[in-house]
Amino acid sequence: MKAFIFDLDGVLVDTAKYHYLAWKEVADSLNLNFNESMNEKLKGVSRDKSLKIIIEENGRDLSEFDLSNILKIKNEIYLSYINKIDRNELLPGAESLLKKSKENGIFVCLGSASKNAKLILHKTKIYNLFDCIIDGNDVSNAKPNPEVFIKSSQILGIEHNLCTVFEDSQAGIDAAITAGMNTVGIGENNALKGANIIIKNLAEFNIN
Ligand code: B16
Ligand code: MG
């Protein structure tokens, strides 16, 4: 292994709850149904695609103008939470594995769908631990398209089969498999299909 590519939300930081709260507030204001099970479908999915899923599930049709306003409002609400976060949102084992990877000569990259990734890395004070950062602002195709991971390996100059992706979403695992990379699924259950191994959190990962 020469490079580890980490997803952000659900792998390094616990921000999924803020995405949920922001979508819920938006959905309630529009009289759209939105619950925890629908929220599961948004894991690892881009902001635009997330809104499309909510709208489709509700059988509604909105104009492009309305959609772009809703996306703006959702992000403002999400940022109102994110602006208050600190290192307490880091998930178990996250910072320690980032540091151990570097100590072992393994490159560390971020591969996230979030356009707010850099702000979150600064807030949690782990920004400087990355050799490269690819986020939602750098790609035109959202996961399960492998673009985010392929760009990461290109910037590092590392072959795909020498990269390992840490992901909590099925869209992300599928993207990494399509890119020909190794996969570590992160989650409480074995719901992630196709991952090489599945662990509860990064604290369970033994770099040796
Ligand atoms: P933003 P990841 C993803 O982050 C989240 O899992 C997903 O729920 C969210 O919609 C997406 O980022 C976009 O986030 O609205 O901040 O651009 O898991 O790929 O790190
Ligand atoms: Mg994620």
From TrEMBL:
<comment type="similarity">
    <text>Belongs to the HAD-like hydrolase superfamily. CbbY/CbbZ/Gph/YieH family.</text>
</comment>
<dbReference type="InterPro" id="IPR006439">
    <property type="entry name" value="HAD-SF_hydro_IA"/>
</dbReference>
<dbReference type="InterPro" id="IPR041492">
    <property type="entry name" value="HAD_2"/>
</dbReference>
<dbReference type="InterPro" id="IPR010972">
    <property type="entry name" value="Beta-PGM"/>
</dbReference>
<protein>
    <submittedName>
        <fullName>Beta-phosphoglucomutase</fullName>
        <ecNumber>5.4.2.6</ecNumber>
    </submittedName>
</protein>
<dbReference type="InterPro" id="IPR010976">
    <property type="entry name" value="B-phosphoglucomutase_hydrolase"/>
</dbReference>
<dbReference type="InterPro" id="IPR023198">
    <property type="entry name" value="PGP-like_dom2"/>
</dbReference>
<keyword id="KW-0413">Isomerase</keyword>
<dbReference type="Pfam" id="PF13419">
    <property type="entry name" value="HAD_2"/>
</dbReference>
<dbReference type="InterPro" id="IPR023214">
    <property type="entry name" value="HAD_sf"/>
</dbReference>
<dbReference type="InterPro" id="IPR036412">
    <property type="entry name" value="HAD-like_sf"/>
</dbReference>
<dbReference type="GO" id="GO:0008801">
    <property type="term" value="F:beta-phosphoglucomutase activity"/>
</dbReference>
